[in-house]
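User: My advisor asked me to double-check a structure prediction for FeMo cofactor biosynthesis protein NifB before group meeting. I don't want to rely on an old file, so could you generate it fresh from this sequence?
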Amino acid sequence: GAKQKKEEATIDEKTLTHPCFSGGCQNARMHIPVAPACNISCNYCNRKYDCQNESRPGVTSKVLTPEEAVEKFIYVRQKVQNLKVIGIAGPGDALANFDDTKKSLEMIRSVDPDITFCLSTNGLMLMHYADEIIRLGVTHVTITINAIDPKIGALIYREVNFMGVKLTGEKAARVLLANQLAGLRYLSSRGIVCKVNIVMIKGVNDNHIESVVEKVKEYGAFMTNIMPLIPAAGSVFENMPMTSNKELNDLRKKCNIHLKQMYHCRQCRADAIGALDEDLSSEFMNDKCVAPC
Ligand code: SF4
Ligand code: SF4
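Assistant: Sure, here is a fresh prediction for FeMo cofactor biosynthesis protein NifB from the sequence you gave:
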């Protein structure tokens, strides 16, 4: 009815003011690093290296408690113009730390009724928490889906810990995929705007990505964000070849026929603050980096 219409309009407005979903508007977003744990192991990840000199997903100088995150938000809100989005993007997985994710968002909502809530996840627990995510007022969700073929998934994911059960190989990839797709379908059907991130890994999934894009479109994805592999030091994929910008953009163009593509991703840190091309996170750090790198 009318109420539903109004809510939909609000989500559309939020999409237009969200720097990652809008096609590059200059508004600022703030990541709160409240999610240290992860429930899967990707071969390109090494969360041991958390350094302020590095900029890639999964990196933060410090993990915050929900209380600290709210305090920081209130402080940053006074200093950063056009802060429109609060996102949780690790340094682990937002849904593997659901209690802290939930507490942080509830507390921030109580001091700011309007700010857009964004979550980024590997999707393993997406179906499990879908209704809670909606209830919390999260309108934008990013799911990283690197393969829709468990054989390829098995090359990317070393282990999946699904509600206490440790899985490996194709079984792990299959369980992860089933949850990612079910969550994507469910949230999309309820008006949540879902973006799918795909890490382009040369020789592993690069020829498979177009099929991933077609599949996630079918399940309701709003856009895909194909990103180049940034192999973390100490990770299994440490010595994998990098993708050139040309290869990346050629693939994005090819996939653009099927679904809207993101061309302006900055692969932000878990504590990123600011517009996409001006990371202010170091201005708001109060601790020196203690990482070994
Ligand atoms: Fe959301 Fe990712 Fe943008 Fe952060 S960088 S606000 S998690 S889409
Ligand atoms: Fe690392 Fe993210 Fe993969 Fe977890 S889901 S292992 S934090 S890259």
